[in-house]
Structure formats: structure tokens, C-alpha cells
Amino acid sequence: MPTYLTPALAWRRLREGNERFVSGESRHPNQDAARRSSLLEGQNPFAVIFGCADSRLAAEIIFDLGLGDAFVVRTAGQVIDDAVLGSLEYSISELKVPLIAILGHDSCGAVTATKGAVETGEMPPGFIRDLVERITPSVLTAKRNGQEEVNDMVVEHVKQTAQRLADSSRVISDAIEEGRVAVIGLSYKLGEGQAALVSAIGDV
């Protein structure tokens, strides 16, 4: 059965799970054999987490979630491409998920590499160049705003990623307009384990 949570309630559930993780009181819900069996016929996640692929950013752990709770999409530097857009649109149109959370983090390697490329003019080789090219507008915007620190650039990139999703996808923008979906931007602190809200599109 679908969860029928509002975007605001879905964000509250994510936030409460993160608070448990930060305080060392994780419950590790929905991680047993019974939960596994209950999901055989389908899934009804209550949130989409589109985050950086960094190994320290395991979504189900930092939000204290289990099987079937979150639809997770991850790329280095939470960079959007067609496969990401298709995955997110599927979660909205088919799974009826009410919340998309964009999850960036401090000391992000992809953003750091982009900052370096912008400042030196030297592009990295291979497909890493593609990541850097997609993150460059966020780094340039941060610099234009007088923000020279990588972590400030990460926050800017989270905000721009959220806006780009709403601008690029008709499925997502329509769902936001109808009040069925919200897109939030979160910045995660590796040391504290806390995911802070930095932007919101829609009602949360």
C-alpha cells in the first residue's frame, strides 16, 4: 500500500531518523526477514534520496531507515544526467513518492576537483571531466557570491541541483505545482552526521 505521506511528513520522518543517527540512538528499522518478505510484491518508499556516491554518505544509515523506506539514487557530486532524471521521474510517477531529498556533503571530492579545475583551468581526464563540467556552474555562482570555501560551494551545488531538477523535469515540476511533491536540499556534515536543510521547493 502507498504511504500517502505529505511532503512535510516525509521530511519530518527523514529528519527524525537523522536525529536518532546523530545522537547514537539508531533503531535500524525494517531490516529483518519479515520486512524483506513483506516487500516481495512491491515497494512503497516514502522518500527519494538523490545523493553523492561518497562511501561516507550511506543514505539508509544516516537517516536510520530500512528496506523499502527510501528510493536511493547516487552519483559522484550528485550530478544529474538522463538516467538520474529517469530514475527520479519513475519514483514520482510510478511509486508516488512525495519527497525528493538532494543530499550533498562537506569536503566533497567532486566539488573540490571542480573548484581546482575552475581556478587552474586544467580539466581532469576521462569521464571525470564530465562531472566537473556539470558542477562548474555551481562553483562559479558560489565564487560570484564571494564564497571561496569548498563547503559553501557544496551548499550552492545542492541548491542548484534541486532547482535544476524542477526546471528540467516536467513530471517533477507538475508534481510540485500540484502539491504532491517537494524537493529539498540537504547538506551533510561528515563529522557530526547531521543533514541540514538548505533549500526547499514546494511545501515542507
From TrEMBL:
EC numbers: 4.2.1.1
Enzyme class: lyase
Entry keyword Metal-binding: yes
Catalytic activity entry: hydrogencarbonate + H(+) = CO2 + H2O
Annotated cofactor note: Binds 1 zinc ion per subunit.
Sorted UniProt keywords: Lyase, Metal-binding, Zinc
Residue sites binding Zn(2+) per the record: C52, D54, H105, C108
Cofactors named for this entry: Zn(2+)
Superkingdom assignment: Bacteria
Function: Catalyzes the reversible hydration of carbon dioxide to form bicarbonate.
Family of the protein in this entry: Belongs to the beta-class carbonic anhydrase family.
The protein's name in its UniProt record: carbonic anhydrase
